[in-house]
Design a protein that fits this description.
The protein has three helices and 18 strands. Strand 7 (about 105-115) and strand 8 (about 125-130) form a beta hairpin. Strands 2, 4, 5, 7, 8 and 9 form a six-stranded mixed beta sheet that branches. The radius of gyration is 42 Å and the shape is rod-shaped. It has helices at about 1-15, 260-270, 270-314; strands spanning about 20-25, 30-35, 40-45, 60-70, 80, 90-95, 105-115, 125-130, 135, 150, 165-170, 180, 185-195, 195-205, 215-220, 230-240, 250, 255.
Length: about 325
């Protein structure tokens, strides 16, 4: 019995041993991340032996580092010998397995570290980073943003460059703030014409950052450089998991024609053109009258001279 007890105690010490020492991990990463992104971390290994002192032959210390939801108790890990890992700064790639079982994103992702002896895989030191971040599927670029957003402005008879402004309304009330798989909804607005983007109006903005404000107004000042052309206001929407430079959902406003400055001046000052014409006509009439009077005078002088000559002859 005593031999059996000693054997059991020995087995327990060999096969049920948690590594000594302490492990810490931290990361400064926050916000939204894509599957496949590289996450920087700082790893602390204080007093962790490279193998179980009681079983050096088969008890090499193993370490696994991954990104996972903080709610997952025992994630599947790819482990390597501790002897191949250096404490301090390191990086880990976010695997697709970090997503939920349904393939949806997670908002409580952490860097997870597990250390154990190979001879005692169930007895582990496990630690998680204290700061969490979100992870989304960024592998699909064709997912249209749901809803029926609009970008509109009040009709105007004439819009003059350098004079008028245009009150825009972007209605996003039917658009979800995020997609469970692809992440937060992002929108932006710009002014386009046949040559492409001419002016950025509203920078890329997360819809959920507006505190439930889903009808956004923007007063666009019409600059001199837009004179005499036709434009469209465009609203662009995408999920975080898509490429923001080529969003999948584009909403265009009705065309807006910007009247050139000379035409606008003429429309605003119709009397100035009429006055100038009248004055010119009046001047012409006066000149004509003066010329006629001069001709009559010269004619009278000529007849007087003829009569005087005849009288002298006679």
């Amino acid at each position: 019995m005593r031999l059996t007890a000693i054997a059991l105690a020995t087995a327990s010490s060999v096969f049920a041993t948690v590594p000594s020492g302490t492990v810490t991990v931290s990361t400064s990463v926050t916000g939204d991340q894509c599957v496949g992104a590289t996450i920087a971390y700082n790893l602390g290994l204080n007093g962790i032996p490279v193998a179980d002192p009681a079983n050096n032959a088969t008890g090499a210390t193993q370490i696994g580092i991954t990104v996972v939801s903080a709610s997952v108790a025992a994630p599947v890990l790819t482990v390597v010998p501790l002897s191949t890992v250096t404490a301090g700064a390191g990086t880990v790639t976010i695997l697709k397995s970090a997503l939920s079982a349904a393939g949806e994103g997670i908002t409580d992702a952490v860097v997870y570290v597990s250390v154990y002896y190979a001879s005692s895989p169930n007895d582990r030191i496990t630690v998680k980073s204290d700061k969490s971040f979100s992870v989304w599927d960024c592998s699909v670029f064709s997912a249209a943003v749901a809803g029926n957003p609009t970008i509109t402005f009040p009709p105007a008879k004439t819009i003059c460059a350098g004079v008028n402004s245009i009150p825009l309304t972007m209605n996003l009330s039917s658009v979800p703030t995020f997609d469970p798989k692809y992440g937060p909804t992002i929108f932006r607005a710009e002014l386009d014409n046949v040559f492409g983007r001419q002016k950025d109006l509203f920078p890329p903005t997360r819809l959920d950052s507006l505190n439930n404000q889903t009808v956004i107004t923007y007063n666009f000042t019409v600059g001199h450089e837009l004179s005499g052309q036709t434009y469209n206001f465009k609203l662009f929407l995408n999920y975080f998991g898509q490429n923001t430079s080529t969003p999948m959902t584009v909403i265009s406003s009705a065309p807006v024609a910007i009247t050139d400055e000379n035409t606008c001046f003429a429309l605003a000052n119709p009397s100035s053109t009429t006055t100038t014409t009248t004055a010119a006509t009046a001047t012409t009439a006066v000149s004509a009258t003066s010329s006629k009077s001069g001709a009559v005078s010269m004619c009278a002088m000529t007849l007087s001279a003829v009569f005087a000559f005849v009288a002298l002859v006679l």
